[in-house]
Structure prediction request, 162 residues.
Amino acid sequence: MQSAQFLCSPIGKFMTEKKIWLVLNLSLGIAACWFVAVAGVALFRYTQLTDTIKPEVIIWGIDEQAEDWYLLSATYTFRLEKNLFQGKGVLKDPIFRNREIAEEALNRSKDLRQIWPIWYSTANPHISALEKRFPFKESFAALLLCGILLYFNALKLYVKSL
Prediction:
């Protein structure tokens, strides 16, 4: 009974409202930090891939991501100044809904499979990828969460000034 009276009092409302703002700020802050870190790593990896090279060996396969989600994958080897480097990668597009269609697409594109360029880092050739894609999704999510966090903090300051 006393706790209900406390919550109904002006001090109780003030304390619970502060807790709500604190929980909201902490939750958004942690989520924003996580998404900024993910976007930062993706942007770093994107900027590291600076040059292309033709692979010596490229073996294509099919990677099952889920029951109805198949992607083309490859294991490749390339030579750079007498050193041999290996890598694995998955093509993000196209997405196939069943294995048979993915196998048909793989068989139809035999000519393209041999000339696929490999992106690699000139500073560290161990960093390589099948394709170089700017991380739009990760960057947008990080910017959106930071914007929401800033909006709620600005709203808090505005409400305090009233």
Summary: The two ends are 32 Å apart (CA to CA). The chain has a mean pLDDT of 85. The beta strands are 51-53, 57-66, 69-80, 83-90, 118-120, 128-129.
